[in-house]
Amino acid sequence: xxxxxxxxxxxxxxxxxxxxxxxxxxxxxxxxxxxxxxxxxxxxxxxxxxxxxxxxxxxxxxxxxxxxxxxxxxxxxxxxxxxxxxxxxxxxxxxxxxxxxxxxxxxxxxxxxxxxxxxxxxxxxxxxxxxxxxxxxxxxxxxxxxxxxxxxxxxxxxxxxxxxxxxxxxxxxxxxxxxxxxxxxxxxxxxxxxxxxxxxxxxxxxxxxxxxxxxxxxxxxxxxxxxxxxxxxxxxxxxxxxxxxxxxxxxxxxxxxxxxxxxxxxxxxxxxxxxxxxxxxxxxxxxxxxxxxxxxxxxxxxxxxxxxxxxxxxxxxxxxxxxxxxxxxxxxxxxxxxxxxxxxxxxxxxxxxxxxxxxxxxxxxxxxxxxxxxxxxxxxxxxxxxxxxxxxxxxxxxxxxxxxxxxxxxxxxxxxxxxxxxxxxxxxxxxxxxxxxxxxxxxxxxxxxxxxxxxxxxxxxxxxxxxxxxxxxxxxxxxxxxxxxxxxxxxxxx
Length: 494
Hints:
The chain is an alpha/beta fold. The chain folds into three domains: 3-241, Rossmann fold; 252-303, no CATH class; 403-489, 3-Layer(aba) Sandwich (Rossmann fold). It has helices at residues 3-18, 91-97, 153-170, 187-202, 252-255, 257-263, 269-278, 290-303, 352-361, 364-370, 397-405, 423-432, 473-476, 478-489, and strands spanning 31-32, 47-55, 60-67, 78-82, 101-103, 115-117, 127-131, 141-142, 179-184, 204-205, 210-211, 238-244, 409-415, 437-446, 449-457, 461-466. Strands 1, 2, 3, 4, 7, 8, 9, 12, 13, 14, 15 and 16 form a twelve-stranded mixed sheet that branches. A hairpin with a 4-residue loop joins strand 10 and strand 11. The protein is globular, with a radius of gyration of 22 Å.
């Protein structure tokens, strides 16, 4: 047996361990969750969890957390939140970024981690769906192993559109609410593609009995045929999208690390000039000769010493490592058997809370409270890097151009201390869309202090930096980002 066949067999066996595939028949209706283990007292907001089948042939079901707006649910926008990775659970967005819960960062002692209310949640101003996607992320699952090998940009975006249509059919009271697609990091690449799928879906012509694609990207997407009868498919009230520290798939995402490092004083003037000269100006990701390759190796060594997620914070052990073999370990009786407990960073590290999420989600009492279907996911992982993912859409730029040129709004924000996807590159590609500048680079404020800088373009595109924030911005600057999204959703200047 060849090495590739052996690897495929090992992956197949690993998937069988994690996903036993004994799920009951699908149901789209959600269940209200009034209390959560680890949170003292009843939840001070409306939480619903549930599943939506997004692929009826293969039995793919996406798990979601829905939280009604703490303001005016009947009128406030509906935001669908996708988490990056790819293959990271949307629970990360709920407890680490924009949701109304967070973990108490206390040293783990074997008991259930504690949750508390987060005051600067985006649910203050919007209804929010946190969607575990693509398949294999969080508590989303498939009844057929083959589906876990098919996850990619195209299938992810199509499945999300299918989810939205079916979810809104089940929740018709939110059909008239303004709809925004939102997400960050790698999901920032998927968000405009999903927005395009929604636009495609809204261009349904009943008289022709077919769907028509928006002309700008008609060769780039394959529209999803839903099982819902054509006349019952709702028009989605899409208003735009929101992306933070976003990936595009373009070379600029990573090439921007070099000028960013130079601007931040991480590399010297001499080395910056050398790497520019050796690597043909700006394409640092494709060494053209040995000198360029040597320079880039040196650059990688320099970066290895710092925290690329936020260059001002300490470098810590990852809470969702790349695949490594771990022994089976059992905790207390109320815990599931854990195959891949992640390494534990120091308590003063920001990602220590990621460890708490891992132990919290892998308990029987939590799964019962969330109404997780038994036998579907053997072990919850914050980011499931064991499963394959295909980057089958090279770039999202054409989708940004198509959706914004069609009159829909876009908010693009970046933490200005993120070296993973530096704001330098994001600023570059937003300018490359060649929209007219309405309001050039200017400061925006929270509590009388500069919170970052913003540029407003024609076609309703706004680019924002968040001062002092990393990857991703909301995790570092909750208060400032809540002010940002409130003003933007309200069509007010930042």
